[in-house]
Amino acid sequence: MLKAVVLIGGPQKGTRFRPLSFEVPKPLFPVAGVPMIQHHIEACTKVPNIKEILLIGFYQPNEALSRFLVSAQQEFKIPIRYLQEYAALGTGGGIYHFRDQILLGNPEAFFVLNADVCSEFPLGEMLSFHRQLGNPDSFLMLGTTANRKQSLNYGCIVANTETHEVLHYVEKPSTFVSELINCGIYLFTPAIFHHIGAVFQRNQQELLLEESTNGWQRAEAIRLEQDVFTALAGQGRLFAYKTEGFWSQIKSAGSAIYASRLYLSCYSQCHPERLAQNQPGGPTIRGNVYIHPAASVDPSAVLGPNVSIGKGVTIGAGVRVRESIILHGASLQDHTCVLNSIVGWDSTIGRWARVEGTPSDPNPNDPYAKIDSETLFRDGRLTPSITILGCNVTIPAEVVILNSIVLPHKELSRSFKNQIIL
Predict the structure, then answer these.
(1) How far apart are CA 87 and CA 113, in angstroms?
(2) Which of 161, 181, 228, 297 is the most exposed, having the fewest neighbouring CB atoms within 10 Å of its CB?
(3) What residues form DSSP beta bridges with 57?
């Protein structure tokens, strides 16, 4: 029997995802038409013998999360439970805190997936690879190749090319270590808790010695990457499985558009029913486009490539949308043009207005390039990137919004460029 754990984090973390994370917990943000973590859950349900999926995080259990859990359980016919941490416990602390729940029913192994990655999730392959290792107490991490410069932003894995054993692991090194990076997707056996427990004991000892601490440090706050993997590397217990499939982090709104593109392109294989087709009397579809059945699109609109249209969206005559996510209830009035943007829930864009961002895509000529999680500002100026309209934003007719972020509930009266509109 197997289980899966998805680490969904909590409210303080999604800061780079604002203003979108104000309205919905980041793990429920729709990517390619479905909530981000639904892709994880779907991948888990395809592995035979996974009997339960646990979500661990410190979001307050809210209506959106409960609704999602109910519908996902009905759709995938598998128990899915949310376990709420009492504080941010880190990637290792959360699973250690809920180890009894994870070990309930005596699973032989369990997957751990970070919610903010998009991937083909080669879980079945990881499982076969783990069984081939023939070491029941070994652990597996998924790795992928990054280019030398970008590898510094990730956990770097030095592995033996023959045995795939992880010899050395460094989280975000200051100098080049390896092009093999950690994807945040793991396969553990229950023995992992012994190693996390050792870190917990050590943290407790250290806290006892430093009685002068301000009380904000917790022995239970444990990071898998820095605290556990670094120590496990080179002990013959930790192995890396390298994927050639797509993988990206979803840290910022711009990376959500890129992740949407990756998922939409694999729909042609795994979910052709989710892709819109050109039909007589329907809008013009270019490339991969997802349109929610409850959206209304004028036949003279041109959509795509890489467009996702949410529930209840209205798209008027002559509208052009490209490389964008339009969230539920938004209205794009006649002849608007939306490029490289995310349009928030229930926002309205007036006729002949133009909303445009600058794509923050990885270098298309480098097969190992990853998306840069850009800072919003460089040299005190807003970095041109995806344009984001928060929820309930109204853009008047005939204005241009370029490379800007508009916070929720704003009614604009003129054009803006390279600004955060508070």
Answers:
(1) 19
(2) 161
(3) 9, 84
pTM of the model: 0.94
| Alpha carbons 114 and 313: distance in angstroms, whole number | 30
CB 367 within 8 A of CB 247: no
- Partners of 321 in beta bridges: 303, 338
- Using left for φ > 0, alpha for ψ between -120 and 50, and beta otherwise, residue 389 falls in beta
> The dihedral of CA 326, 329, 335, 336: what is its sign?
negative
* Six-digit token string for 28: 């429920």
Q: What does the H/E/C string look like for 133-153? A: HCCCCCEEEEEEECCCCHHHH
Cα torsion for 58, 62, 64, 70, to the nearest 10°? 90
Amino acid identity of residue 305, one-letter, is: P
For residues 254 and 371, give the distance between their C-alpha atoms in angstroms, rounded to a whole number.
9
DSSP per-residue string spanning 226-266? IIIIHHHTTTT-EEEEE--S-EEE--SHHHHHHHHHHHHHH
Torsion of CA 282, 286, 291, 297, to 10 degrees: -40
Contact 69, 53 (CB under 8 A): no
Q: What is the DSSP string of 111-128?
A: EEEETTEEE---HHHHHH
Distances (CA, A) of 235 to 142, 183, 240, 243, 289: 18, 21, 13, 23, 47
Would you say 132 and 126 are in contact if contact means Cβ atoms under 8 Å apart?
no
pLDDT per residue as tens, the chain (422 positions): 999 999 998 876 456 677 777 778 889 999 999 999 999 999 999 999 999 999 999 998 888 999 999 999 999 999 999 999 998 899 999 999 999 999 999 999 999 999 999 999 999 999 999 999 988 889 999 999 999 999 999 999 999 999 999 999 999 999 999 999 999 999 999 999 999 999 999 988 888 876 655 555 678 889 999 999 999 999 999 999 999 999 999 988 888 999 999 999 999 999 999 999 999 999 999 999 999 999 999 999 999 999 999 999 999 999 999 999 999 999 999 999 999 999 999 999 999 999 999 987 887 777 788 887 656 666 666 776 889 999 999 999 999 999 999 999 999 999 999 888 88
CA 103, CA 225: separation in Å to the nearest integer? Answer: 22
Angle, helices 63-76 vs 36-45, to 10°: value is: 30
